[in-house]
Amino acid sequence: MSDTQVSSAAASTLGGGVTSGGDGAGNAPSPAARGPRSSRIGWRQRFEITLLAGPAIAVFVLFVILPVFMAAYYGFYRWHGYGKPTDFVWFQNYKVILSDPAFRHAVLHNFQIVALSLLIQGPVAILLALLLNRKMRGRSIIRVLVFVPWVVSEIIAGTGWSLMLQTQGAVNAILTDLHVFGRVHVDWLGNPHIAIWTLMVILTWKYIGFAVILLMAGLQNIPEELYEAATMDGAGYWQTQWRITLPLLGPTIRIWAFLSIIGALQLFDLVYIVWGQYVAGVAGVSTMATYMVQNGRLAGNYGYGNAVAVVLFFISLFVALVYQRLVLRRDVAGSEGKAR
Amino acid sequence: MTTSALEAGTARRTKPSRAPKPKQPWGSPATYFIALVVIGLTLAPVVYIVLGGFRTNSQITTDPAGLPHPWKLSNYTDVLGSSTFWTEFFNSALVAAVTTVGVVALGLMASYVLARYRFRGRGLMFALFASGLMFPITVAVTPLFLLLKDLGLLDSRIGVILPQIGFALPATIIILVPFLQAIPLEIEEAAAVDGCGRLAFFLRMVLPLSIPGVLTTGILAFVASWNSYLLPLFILNSPESFTLPLGVQVFSSQYSTDTAKVLAFTSLSMLPALLFFTLFERRIVGGLQGAVKG
Asked: What's the short name of a Pfam family annotated to this entry (chain A) (predicted)?
């Protein structure tokens, strides 16, 4: 039962709220919590806690939490980054952002990417994880190879893909050499009807490894006996996967989906590297983050850029809270009554 | 209960798949076929980059998808002979190493507090770190740039390292806490009987026992730092302080006509992370197991 607490703790606190059970004390107290010495909360223990947790909290608050509040502050100013911000403009920046068609398009693209990521990567990752979980020769080598794209940096993946996807590039050349489609001359990156799908292929290629790693870790937690029992009852391979693996993998899938949604909303690197700052908007793959960098830092409008960051944050937060209410809640609620 | 918790950390070793396997069954051919197709698709772009480095530009132009013919080593030797590459390599290595050590040290200490101490505000502290998953670097990077400017840390490696540590802490803590909770209370009691204080217990017992989790989080932090792009893009602006991802970008716009050399530079800069990951891949899956328990 103590194994349920991390995913549920992560799930219940993701939205930022402190819920009971979220700290692990609610459903499964940590061993030390009942320790003989833990009742003596003296200066010595306080000193130890401060000494051990202090540095992490300091770095985290200073470089992660504080910047977000700073963004909220600077977002109210028209400011170009020199000296102190003085030109307080209330919600002017936000009005401009929300009425800018370029931003609305970026938001739309983000949500398209969220939906397509879940629909494409989810099933593919589950099938891959099942495949890699089968006993077969050379499995460990196959595993390493499947994870290669995830380890390769965004800049390298982006450079490689953008070269391959040129109209004169390798992808078109290979398709031509297949002699099925005739002479292929597709503008994979520039054509606004195709670009979003090109992006999805690149994203799937790049991030499927992470989904597979998570799912494989989840698969290891499913007790072998369940499969043995299913086999004895005469269940076939796919029936077993559908009835046993998939439901038991549920919590892992939901955590992955959460991370994938947040990642898709924050997407920046690959779009920026492959499409650059100007083409992305035209090709229909600009995201909120590329909009933020283009209109904030690159344009020298730091006040405006910070306001975009705030909008981006609130959209992510909203989606995360909705997701937590609708989906993750089940895991948290379920873990309370679950016993091994 | 404590023993079942301990299994979270050690189950890998007892699983049949981890046991020494004298004879692995071959399985069905369909499995291998699908696996081969998947591997082909995942590796193709990487292979393209690596092989492209061995070609000449005219080879790439006339036959974009061909093999090197003849093989040309000079692209790689040129890159390896350039001081730019090595400066950036050194910067990346230093930033990644310090980030990794920092994340693991701070993360382990904070996780130990969360896992083994009971105090008011413990839930709040966990919530604080877990909320960090909601604050990706994309949102924070613009104000972070301004903050580091005020602190005088712009264009310095420490200005990249400190925020990277901060942003890696949430995942590290979420992975490490279950590892530390899995250490049986009896060991701590026995240590206490032997006159071992909690801090000494931390150093002598907790550190060695949490090695699997530490490796997982350490590798993840190292690879993330090695590949990090957005933060260095904002913080670093002089070529001497560039890390490899920025170097790749600058190099590819500088030598945009010399595709082959760009590909050579690119493939050399991905090697260390790939090597690192390949060596420790098993550890990562094992270490994440605790974090996705359902």
From this structure: BPD_transp_1
Instruction: Indicate yes or no: CB of B285 within 8 angstroms of CB of A220.
Output: yes
Chain B residues in contact with A131 (beta carbon < 8 A): 31, 34-35, 38
Q: Which domains does chain B have, with CATH numbers?
A: 30-72 (no CATH), 83-293 (1.10.3720.10)
- How many domains, chain A? 1
Asked whether this complex has an ipTM greater than 0.95, the answer is: no
**In chain A, beta strands by DSSP E:** 77-78, 87-88
Range of the domain at A124: 92-339
Whole-structure pTM value = 0.78
| pLDDT 10s digits, A60-99 | 999 988 988 888 888 888 877 666 777 777 888 888 888 8
The answer to whether residue A76 is domain-embedded is no
Beta-sheet pairing, A77-78 with A87-88 = antiparallel
Q: Is there a domain that residue A27 lies in?
A: no
Q: Which residues of B touch A247 (CB under 8 A)?
A: none
Main-chain phi, psi angles of A278, to 5 degrees: -95, -40
Asked if the C-beta of B216 comes within 8 angstroms of chain A's C-beta atoms, the answer is no
**Chain B interface test: which of A1, A27, A30 (most B C-beta within 10 Å):** A30
Q: What angle do CA A116, A169, A260 make, to 5 degrees?
A: 20
Above 80 in pLDDT, residue B88? yes
Q: What are the pLDDT digits (tens) for A233-273?
A: 777 777 777 877 787 787 788 888 888 888 898 888 888 88
Partner A contacted by B178 (CB < 8 A): yes
A166's CB contacts (< 8 A; 6+ apart) are: A172, A189, B64
At residue B293, the pLDDT reads 53
CA distances from B230 to B106, B133, B142, B225, B246 (A): 23, 17, 10, 11, 9
Which helix (H) or strand (E) covers residue B148, if one does? Answer: helix B137-151
Residue B127 contacts residue A18 (beta carbons within 8 Å): yes
Whether residue B143 is preceded by a cis peptide bond, meaning omega within 30 degrees of 0, is: no
Task: Work out the number of other CB atoms within 10 angstroms of the CB of residue B281.
Answer: 19
Dist CA B183 CA B115 (whole Å): 10
Q: Search chain A and give the residue with CA nearest B27.
A: A136
Residue A30 lies in a domain: no
**What CATH number has the domain bearing residue A313?**
1.10.3720.10
